[in-house]
Amino acid sequence: MKHFITSTDSTNINSLVLKALAYKQNPTADKQLGAGKRMGLLFLNPSMRTRLSTQIAAQNLGMEPVVFNVGQEGWSLEFEEEAIMSGTTVEHVKDAAPILGNYFDILGIRTFPSLKNKEDDYSELYIKQFIKYSGIPIVSLESATLHPLQSLTDIITITEHLNNSSKKSAPIPAIRGHKPKVVLTWAPHVKPLPQCVANSFAQWINAWGEADFVITHPEDYELDTQFTKGATITHNQEEALKDADFVYVKNWSTYTDYGRIYCNDPDWMLTNEKLQATNNAKVMHCLPVRRNVELSDEILDGPNSIVTQQASNRVWAAQAVLAEILEGSGK
Ligand code: CP
Q1: CATH of the domain spanning 148-312
Q2: Extents of the domains making up the chain
Q3: CA nearest ligand 1 atom 1, residue
Q4: HSE of 242 in the Cβ direction (CA atoms, 13 Å)?
Q5: Residue of the nearest CA to atom 3 in ligand 1?
Q6: Which pTM does this prediction carry?
């Protein structure tokens, strides 16, 4: 693996899942793999889980992680080619990235979308410029449109539950005789949020191919079809939830009329009553979550919620990815 930006950067999702689950059993099995190497973690936006889990993952592999909160502590970066930098940006990525490429062996970047200009956000300029100018492997710690470490974690967590329920350790649900029904449901929120987690979950579940995948959301909340193609999409949440094995709850703002909130209908919030229609589904969310807006207390504090396990698995997803990059890197 060279970079980790999107599902296609993994040639075999199930082997990545197996690798992550093996690290969960033995976190320091490859302590020598990253010895003498450094990982830079650049945050243009806030984070708790991604920041800490990736640092722990790097340390488990013997790497030294260095965190830099660019958004708060660094010079304001310019990403446009041929920009006349007479505004607020102080340093061009063309100048900064090669230096970071010399300091580090792997670079992780977190950026968010502006939610103002769809073409700009969906061009993924920030990540592309770091790939172009740093000369080292780039790991997305969430970009304008995708959150691959989260999505890999989500598949690891689903696989872990399927293995536990079937008492088998095979990573492929299909060989157990049936595919689990996985539902991604839109949830209300008070402010416009990126589509990254939903896009990415859809992209990875489709690429994985081991689930019956249904997406449900209110009208006008369609996601970009490049990520959802292959999923069943319905505006009827009740119908979508029927017999679900896993329900992934997430808000996103509108994609077509970009970055808006049309409806904040509290009826879309998942409750125990709605869960009755499912196959005693496990409930997932990437966190952070606004309680009793996106997800009810009764769900989050109840037996069906696996959000803590899911967030804990972030370490193993990051570790599997970093290990694959280190194994493939000549640096
Ligand atoms: N889920 C997730 O990416 O959490 P953080 O924003 O805290 O990193």
Answers
A1: 3.40.50.1370
A2: 7-146+314-329, 148-312
A3: 286
A4: 5
A5: 50
A6: 0.96
